[in-house]
Amino acid sequence: MPPSCSHLLLLFLPLLLLLCCEVWSYEAPEDKEDVFARRACPAFLSFTNAAFLAGVTVELPCYCKPQQVHSVVWFYKKHLDGPEETRVLTDHHGNKLLDASRVPHSGDLRSRFSIRLFSLLIFRAAPDDSGVYLCGSAHKDFFYAYDLDIQEARTPRFTLSRRRKEGKAADRLDAPRPLYRVFTGYQRWSVCDRCGPPGEQVRAGLCYVHSRFLHVRYRRANQTAASCGSGAVPRAFGLSGQSGGGAKMEVRGCQVTCPPQAPPSSKLVALMAFLGYSSSSQPAEVPVFYLNHPAERVLTVGCPGSRPNLAVAWDRGSTPIYRSEHTAGRNLSAAPPRLRIDTGHHLVFTPAKTQDSGVYYCWLQGRRAAEIRLLVYVHLGRGQSVTSHPDFPLALKTVLTSYAAMTTVFTLLVIGRAGVRLYRDTGL
User: Fold this and answer.
1) How many CB atoms sit inside 10 A of residue 343's CB?
2) How many angstroms separate the CA atoms of 258 and 275, rounded?
3) Which SS3 state, helix, strand or coil, does residue 347 take?
4) 329: left (phi > 0), else alpha (psi -120 to 50), else beta?
5) Using CA atoms, how far apart are residues 115 and 54, in angstroms rounded to an integer?
6) 355, 165 in Cβ contact below 8 A?
7) Which of 135, 122, 120 is nearest to 73 (CA)?
8) Sheet containing 339-341: which strands, arranged edge to edge?
9) Per-residue DSSP letters for 50-62?
10) Which of 320, 364, 338, 346 is nearest to 190 (CA)?
11) Helical H segments across 208-334, by residue range
């Protein structure tokens, strides 16, 4: 090697070593590092399969969103390769829905969604809401995508035995087929939905497909199972109708004792004693909600704070409302019950009557969570009259009885006053 070349190599050697150290010690910018530290974001947009029972509130978080993005837009399409147009779900055009109680019982997707903290919430999800959901921005950037499958359980199944193995593993596996196998994946039994009186436990079973031929864009590495209504399942399998009839819900009875309540603070006891109340008359720490609804219309009441994986129970006053007693399909000869608890744990009146007015309590995870005071009023209009109300004869009788009583009292007072005057005049 010529001397000039060796001198040049000696001069550039420290610079090369310095560059190598900088390369090995490189750290990602803070805003980029936070995005990928929470979740492994794919290099290209893939679809995460998510399956739920119909009637629940579905929450789809917008993962992989950079911190500099302050608003998101959700895109929806029924089938990725279908002829349907892509719909935009955004709260920038008056479609923001903050109160779940304002959601109509049956409506399209635009009237049942909300965007909160970049997550998409779908209230009372229905099988028609199944499809592909993409989280992105108005600048055509896409961050995360879901393959949503909403399955409907037709009739809950009531069991008395507890011998079946619990867990998320498949409890029922169909006979092996050459290309795929269909099975039901059961969730764990919920906790007893109320304490003290007898309660119920619920678990859901969703329809899944096991196959090595799932669409590569709809699955993760080494994933060989997807829900029956997922776009990952090839259409050649002929399972398009499984998502509606493959889901199951099982209910069984239970009874647990209520845990001891913590004693109230000394200040509260002193205040109640000063006001003349005993410790047994202290009000329960349960929030109270007031709900008014017109009669002869479908009413759906949800328990505040409930989620799909939480156990929910309902009481009317001190009387429990059991799924085993208010479920359609148990007796084929009987008409469907007017009051029922759907798979989303909502209390559904079909329709609501004036006699349904009263105080209702809902339980969450075995504890009483809320008190709902319901008033069902008569909605006049559309050709209806006051006389058509079923309580009109009783109300008319009450008014006439009160009028007769007041007239009798007034007549007696007049006669008594006249008698007193006559007695005075005669005495003089």
Assistant:
1) 21
2) 29
3) strand
4) left
5) 20
6) no
7) 135
8) 299-301, 347-349, 339-341
9) EEEETTSPEEE--
10) 364
11) 242-245, 266-274
Cα 56 from Cα 303, distance rounded (Å)? 12
Alpha carbon distances (Å) from 336 to 155, 226, 250, 275, 294: 12, 34, 19, 50, 21
Give, in degrees to the nearest 5, the angle at Cα 135 between 151 and 186: 25
pTM of this structure? 0.66
Estimate to the nearest angstrom the gap between the alpha carbon of 393 and the chain centroid: 41
Establish whether the linkage from the previous residue to 351 is cis, with ω within 30° of 0. Answer: yes
What are the beta bridge partners of residue 254? 199
Alpha-carbon dihedral angle through residues 211, 131, 350, 105, given to the nearest 10 degrees: 150
Distances (CA, A) of 402 to 342, 387, 390, 397, 407: 44, 19, 20, 8, 9
Q: Mean pLDDT per segment of 10 residues, for the chain of length 428 residues?
A: 52 50 41 46 76 88 86 84 75 41 44 80 87 86 89 72 46 58 89 92 90 77 81 78 67 89 71 65 72 89 85 92 72 68 88 91 91 85 59 83 92 88 76
Both structure tokens of 138: 């108005």
Contact 167, 186 (CB under 8 A): yes
